Amino acid sequence: MLAQPVTPPGMATPNLSDEQLTEVLGLIRGADSVELKVTVPESDHRSAVSALGMDALDAQIRHVYFFDTPELALYEHGLVVRARRTQRKGDDSVVKLRPVVPGELPAELRDSAGLVEVDAMPGGFVCSGSMKDTVKTGHVREAVMGDRDLHKLYSKEQQDLFDEHRPGGIELDDLSILGPIFVLKLKFSPPGYDRKLVAELWWYPDYSRVLELSTKCAPSEAFQVAAEARALLNGRGVDLSGKQWTKTRKALEFFAMRLR
Q1: Would you say residue 5 lies in a domain?
Q2: Is residue 13 one of the residues assigned to a domain?
Q3: Distances (CA, A) of 213 to 96, 125, 166
Q4: pLDDT at 82 over 80
Q5: Model pTM score
Q6: What domain range includes position 179?
Q7: Is the pLDDT higher at 17 or at 210?
Q8: What's the N-to-C CA distance of the chain in angstroms?
Q9: pLDDT per residue as tens digits for the range 177-213
Q10: In contact, 214 and 200? CB cutoff 8 Å
Q11: CA-CA distance, 223 to 74, in Å (whole number)?
């Protein structure tokens, strides 16, 4: 069963209510991991990079593609279909259900090494179930160039998951290409901080940017890690009070508007 998101699409609210806090505790207990995220206001990108000691030359280049209808029928029904090309790493594909309740997820997602993860950002959270697979290098590019059927990027298990949750009998090969988004991804440890952080800079074709900082942890560590990460970012002068935008939603809306 799909849950309802606790924040408006694309933006988090300032504070969690007691009811939302109870809900996120329940989701965390049923998840495999927790990813803590914050987006940095565009005006503060340069200062955040400097304060945290990030080096852009260490970043990995990615091309991210989403597949949906021009009306975003999949996304509105809790389905995200994605493929990526990654420098020095290869290609991968994902079928994701979001939002979900961990205890009500389909058995095939758990049985096929699916990942159930809670994404938490200031004032908001969402739980998703993902099924990821590796793709032979070059196949994603062939698919987006029209030289390979889209369904061939996805395993049988991914296709079965898609078929179970697709709206209106939509086929994978009927989907429109939304992308690419040019992404720089950097894994780093700021001086004086012993956990890995991930910085992702998403460049959209209109030259707008989203800089997201994140770290993953076990569910049992979530609140401790969140407190430590917040203290780090506050101590380095990183603004945590701005609007929190989800990278996926922004990308889908941008390209869907162009298609329409």
Answers
A1: no
A2: no
A3: 21, 15, 31
A4: yes
A5: 0.89
A6: 18-259
A7: 210
A8: 30
A9: 999 999 999 999 999 999 999 999 999 999 999 999 9
A10: yes
A11: 32
Query: Residue 10 domain-assigned?
Result: no
For residue 5, count other CB atoms closer than 10 A to its CB.
15
The structural domain count of the chain equals: 1
Compute how many other C-beta atoms are within 10 angstroms of the C-beta atom of residue 33.
16
Residue whose pair of structure tokens reads 């990027």 in the numeric block: 153
Average pLDDT over residues 135-140: 97
Distances (CA, A) of 118 to 13, 24, 158, 203, 246: 17, 8, 20, 25, 14
CATH number of the domain that residue 117 is part of: 2.40.320.10
In a domain, 205, yes or no: yes
**Distance between CA atoms of 211 and 200, rounded to whole angstroms?**
6
- Write down the pLDDT at residue 15: 58
Tell me the sheet residues that pair with 100: 2
Q: Where are the alpha helices (DSSP H) in the chain?
A: 18-29, 45-52, 73-76, 107-111, 139-144, 156-165, 222-235, 247-259
Spatial separation of the C-alpha atoms in residues 91 and 233, rounded to whole Å: 32
